[in-house]
Amino acid sequence: MKSPLYSLFFILIATTHLHSQVTVLYQLKKxxxxxxxxxxxxxxxxxxxxxxIVQQYPNKTGHVVNNDSDQVNSSPRQLHPVFYGCFDxxxxxxxxxxxxxxxxxxxxxxxxxxVRALLNNAFTAANIQEEINYFNxxxxxSFERTYGWAWLLKLDEELYSxxxxxxxxxxxxxxxxxxRIISLxxxxxxxQTYPNRTGVHPNTAFGLGLALDYARALRDSVFEKMLTTAxxxxxxxxxxxxxxxxxxxxxxxxxxxxxxxLMARIFPRKSFSVWFNHFFSAAALKHVTLLPVVSDRxxxxxxxxxxxxxxxxxxxxxxxAVLPGTDDRKRILRxxxxxHLQTALPNVVSGNYGGEHWLASFAVFALLx
Length: 369
Prior knowledge:
Layout: E1 9-16, E2 19-28, E3 35-37, H1 39-52, H2 76-79, H3 89-105, H4 112-122, H5 125-135, H6 147-160, H7 165-188, H8 204-217, H9 221-235, H10 255-266, H11 269-279, H12 282-288, H13 304-322, H14 328-344, H15 353-356, H16 359-368
Antiparallel strand pairs: 1-2, 2-3
Helix pairs in contact: 1-3, 3-6, 3-16, 5-7, 6-7, 6-8, 8-9, 8-10, 9-10, 10-11, 10-13, 13-14, 13-16
């Protein structure tokens, strides 16, 4: 009997407005190397950020109150007129990235006009300036460091690389905020003595990876040099990743795989293989290919483990791509990447806001990057 891993289609059961529908959202690529998003799938997933990007509450602002007056006019939308929805700033940012990415890939997306209207309303010079002003507040220079910073640059990179008049205008409007983020990152990198090896937002390797993609896409050689220098200083001599301890109970990143995914961007292929040989033991690598157990998707921390499936998937696929063709780990990682993706995709549209406000972005990133 053929394994369901290699079935041409699989069915995602989605709950929307209290009604269930069965829709073919993804299909196997012709070369069987992975799954690809269908236009129907893009439309269903786009509905999630379209709803939550303009949903102000519930909200976890992460706002530092400096004095009594700092609590006046401090609703999420007042603090962040662009990125106020989807529960927190970073989820709003990667929700915007996801909508841009889907519209770029599927120009005839059902919600195309709605997406363009939303972005036109959000990306104004005044709104972007307010976002910049927030980072200039006392004690706010480390706000969203570096997870939110990374997604902001990813959003701007997506706009920059899109040959579309609206996208180029949005890029020009967003660029001053990107410049502010880059200035903060440049100030931080020389004093980052140790990396954050966590499985959640502050993970250093994930942030450096997305920032490096941005720097290369926009040909910012100064920023690129700072990022690669920092990555080599922080990670080049690492050995024996303690991946048998993964995951923690609220992880949506694998610290070991994120680090390897970053170094695969930096080392030449032969050098990476040597580094990877010392970094992941066979037992550690086998361990991170095992699917995580998600016991309660209504719990905002436990549901992170669905995201772990997606991030592991894109890391394993990227690492496999640079390993030699004769390396058995290439096949192991590719197969595990598909298993993780196939397992997590049906859980994106769960009806629970704890996952729905962000998981679709991770799913799209895993499918398209």
